[in-house]
Amino acid sequence: MLGIDMGSNTLRAVLMDKNFNKLQSEEFIIAAAKNMQNDTISDEAIERIFNALKSLKEKNYDLGQAKAVATAAFRKAKNATTIMEQIEKKFQLKVQIIDAKTEARLSILGMQERLKSLKLFKKQLSYCDLGGASCEISSEQSCKSYDFGIISFYERMRFKTAKPSAYMRFFKKNPQNLKYIKDKNLKFHLSSYPMHFKQILFQALTISKHIKKEIKGNYFVLNSGVPTTLCAYKQNIKYKDYLEESVNGKILQKRDFFNFALKIWNLEQEKARIYLGENRKKYLIAGSLILFALFEKQKLIVIDDGVREGVCIAHFKNIKI
């Protein structure tokens, strides 16, 4: 069974047997949510989608028998129906555009099956899937989808140029004095971190403020590209050498995301391409700061599996999408 998740940032495919064993998997950066002028998926993104599907076909995947879903960017896009018609005509692949709750359900199905295989599954777990254009936060009781993802969040940023204040200049020269400031936001504001980095951070703190009040539970499972890339980067794994097994079950904490964002902010472009993938750096910084802002003392479990695996599992379990 071939399951395809056509997401706002990546197109991911998995070949799975009826025992939920993953036989092969593929991932392509399509950045469908990038440059969505007037809620329209760009010609460049459409070309990336078609190239990804062409690559799958050339690798002898049976697209005609696959089950495929599309998520947030396609829910919003005015030209989504036209794109899906073109895909069906060219590749004989029917792609179903799913709503946010269905997306969350499929994502959780994928995560839970992997957690069970790792003997990490618990009933009180909560889940966070931060995609390219939306963020789903779910538990067994509820699911909420928020209108931001790593691409859409970054592209809404309006960077401002401002001269450092006298206070900032003082603390840049005397960073040891920052320890006396108790207000976290003020401490960040007065810090010597790059100005645009701080602007992304403050915007992340702003959008997460009302969401944090609704976040409950001590254990969250994260399965999107930001935490998986962070875990791989910590192990010095290059993008082309990424293996799902190297990140599944890893535990992260809030501070890991801030440190990752800061490290890759200072990463020169060629190294960023090698370790993070093509043109992903700025979106990974944005996503890392969003996750840093969202969580506090929760233990964060990283799982690679998500919607594409959920599509296959739903098929084998006769769960209606």
TrEMBL record:
<dbReference type="Pfam" id="PF02541">
    <property type="entry name" value="Ppx-GppA"/>
</dbReference>
<dbReference type="InterPro" id="IPR003695">
    <property type="entry name" value="Ppx_GppA_N"/>
</dbReference>
<dbReference type="InterPro" id="IPR050273">
    <property type="entry name" value="GppA/Ppx_hydrolase"/>
</dbReference>
<feature type="domain" description="Ppx/GppA phosphatase N-terminal">
    <location>
        <begin position="36"/>
        <end position="313"/>
    </location>
</feature>
<dbReference type="GO" id="GO:0006357">
    <property type="term" value="P:regulation of transcription by RNA polymerase II"/>
</dbReference>
<dbReference type="InterPro" id="IPR043129">
    <property type="entry name" value="ATPase_NBD"/>
</dbReference>
<protein>
    <submittedName>
        <fullName>Exopolyphosphatase, Ppx/GppA family</fullName>
    </submittedName>
</protein>
